[in-house]
Every structure is written in structure tokens, then in C-alpha cells.
Hints:
The chain is of the alpha/beta class. The strands form two sheets. The chain has a six-stranded parallel beta sheet, sandwiched between helices. A six-stranded mixed beta sheet has the order 7-8-12-9-10-11, sandwiched between helices. Strand 1, helix 1 and strand 2 (29-37) form a beta-alpha-beta unit. It is 36% helix and 19% strand. The chain starts with a strand and ends with a strand. The protein contains 16 helices and twelve strands. The longest helix is centred in the middle third of the chain and has 19 residues, at 253-271. It catalyses: (R)-glycerate + ATP = (2R)-3-phosphoglycerate + ADP + H(+).
Amino acid sequence: MDKSVYVIGTGKAVKSMAMEVESMFNSKIRDGYISIPKGSSNKLMFKSNLKYIEGAKDNLPDEDAENTSKKVKSLLSNMCINDFVIVLISGGGSALLPLPKAPITLEEKTTLIKKLANCGADIKELNVVRKATSDLKGGQLALEAQPAKIGTLILSDIVGDPLDLIASGPTAENKDSPTSAINIIKKYHLFEDLPSSILSALEDKAYNKAFPHNNVHNYIIGSNKFSIDAAVTQAKELHYLPVALSYTITGNVKDLAKQYCKLLKQFCDYLNGNIDFKTLKSEVSKLDLPVILDNINILNTVDFKGDICLILGGETTVEVTGSGKGGRNQQLPLELSLLLHENKDCLSDHDIYFLIAGTDGIDGPTDAAGAIGYTNLVTDARKENLSVQTYLTNNDSYNFYKKFRKGELHIITGHTNTNVMDIHLILISKQ
Length: 431
């Protein structure tokens, strides 16, 4: 390759990606910045001219990440036609490349995004607003680097793998309408409180420049399906019958817990002989869950008498009304544990355990990836004078799991250096 090579990376998984790029191009790399989460560098040994810079503590945009964004923009603004830019993107990239559009301050932008998230806005809605209020998102990183050629490698953390929304699409064409972000903000009744800086940015249409399609190529190299497939393989090795039900789970955890409870009742009825296979599929199809019905056929095609492992993936949301500490992957197992406790008689003599975790190792602003729940969790918590309902109401799932059983059901892995949404593992075993 005769071109000068530059590398830009942003996200929870890009450290490992960048190190692999370094091993491939090494001395050909002229310059570059890799924006990674606080605590994930582990005293990297630099092989090339790449700089690994930490920021976005607890997955929240901060001054360090903003300064890295400014350096990225400055570097890209000097590209020429003979330059080639390798861009590495994964989930978490929005927080790690947060440069606000002038005159918005980082605090103003972060406050808006936090309010939207607390109201229950999903990742797609959040990233639409981020694009409209940012200087490098929504294809603007690619525009800034013109006339250089750009190749982007992406690990998807959004259902459906939409290029324009993963890390808010820094190298993907922004096809949002001029009113998309405004409509989302109005949907959650936050428009009237917007500062003048954000209002002016939302009314600015200048960033919708012609996108340089011939110069930019985006490639998805990993997604939630990869983690589901790996879980299926591992479940088989542990002698469970794996049923991969979905890669596209979304929605509020309170609503999802209700659907999971109904799903588990149907599986328990089938395993107990109360309903036949045809009825099981029919009842599951009626649930408000995006399941792959054909994958249930494995129950009818193998002679299996042991335990079943239902495997699902996606990304959920939490409506925050309390003042506690937690995240969707700790709130969901608590919500489901409470529902199973209340509907224990419907589970037909089966024990149910479930692990809910983010593949990035971080759930919300905590050091946990998620947590484990089970049928008798509520009863066992009462023995320790812990009220599950109280912790749920206060959105304080992190502190519940920190106290309950001395934290042994907390999933704490640290940064995993990957990010392909969440994984839900549900074990059903005969008592």
C-alpha cells in the first residue's frame, strides 16, 4: 500500500481491534488516536504511532474523551487524496467521541442524553439526538477526512446492525430528517427545557452535506449473533439443550420480564407434558417477543431428557424513577425473579435460573456486567432482610446484588474489550 495510513478508533472493543491493525500495518501507520474506556489500557506497549487515550469513565462522556475528539478532528482535517484512514468502531463509541456541535457544551449535551435515557429512550433514539448535536457523528467524521479514502470496521451493539446508529454513525451517511431529533426530544417532553445552544444546533441544517460514498466503505465484522452462537456451543459442552430464541430483544425491562415469565410458563408446561409441541409453538408465537420460532424445533427433533438453556440477546432499556444505582442487566434479573416468585405455582415443578449480562462487562454506570436471578431469590432475600421490591422501586439493583449473598450473584468481569449488546441465558431444570 503506497498511501499513508492513519487509524482512528472509538469504543469499548477497539483496543484489541487497534492492536491487530498495528500488527498488520506497523510502520506504515503515520498517526492515529484510539479512544478507549477508563481502566482498559493496562499499560499498552505501543508498536506504532498510535496513541491509546482513556476517557468516558462509567460510559459517560467526559473532558478526556472530548479532548481526544478534538485531536481526532484536527488530525482528519489535514488529510489529502493519497491518505487512507482505517476507522475502528464499537459500542460505547458515542461516549468516547463526544465532541459537541458549537456552541453546545459537553455538560449540556450529556445532561440531555441522560434525561432521555432516564425517560426510557432506546439506543436508536439516543443516537439520533447525539448525531444532531455532535461534530463527528452522523457521517461527519468521514466528511472531515475528505478527500482521503476510509475503511471502517464495526462491531455492532445495536439490534439490526444499522450503520448510521452504531456509535452514532461517524462514517455512515446521516439520513435522518431535519426534525427527527426534535421529535424524539418532544416525545419525552424535554423540548421546553432545552438550552439555546442545543436549540440552535437542532435548527442548523449545514451538516447535511453530500456524503462521499465512493470514498467510504463500512463493514460489520461482529454482532450479537456471534455471542449467541458461542453460547450455544458452550451450552452443548455443559450438556444443556440450547435453544437460541432471539438476537433482537429490546424494550423496557419491566415489560420484558412479564413476557419472559409467560414464555417460561409455556416451556414448563411443555416439559411437564401439559401441552404438546404444536401448542408450545403456537403460544410462544403469541408473545410480544421477537423469537425465532423455527429454532424451537430442536425440542421435537432430539431425544433429550436433561436441562434446557434458552439463549436470547439484544439491548433493553430502563425507565429510571428512583435515585439508586444500577443498569438494565441488573434490573431485569430482579424484575423477573419477583415475577417468578409471584407465579411460582405456574412453573410446573421446575427450577429456573438466569444470567443477564452486557458483553462489554459494564452495565450502566457500574462495575458490574449484570447479575443472576432465580425462582426463589425473593424468598432467600427476605431471610437477609432485603426487599426486592424496595430495591426495584428505587432502581437500586446494583446495591441489592452487592449485599445479597455477599455479592456472589453479581457478574463482575471488568472490561471485556468487546461489545455486541447483551446476552440472556435462562436455565430450566426439573426439581
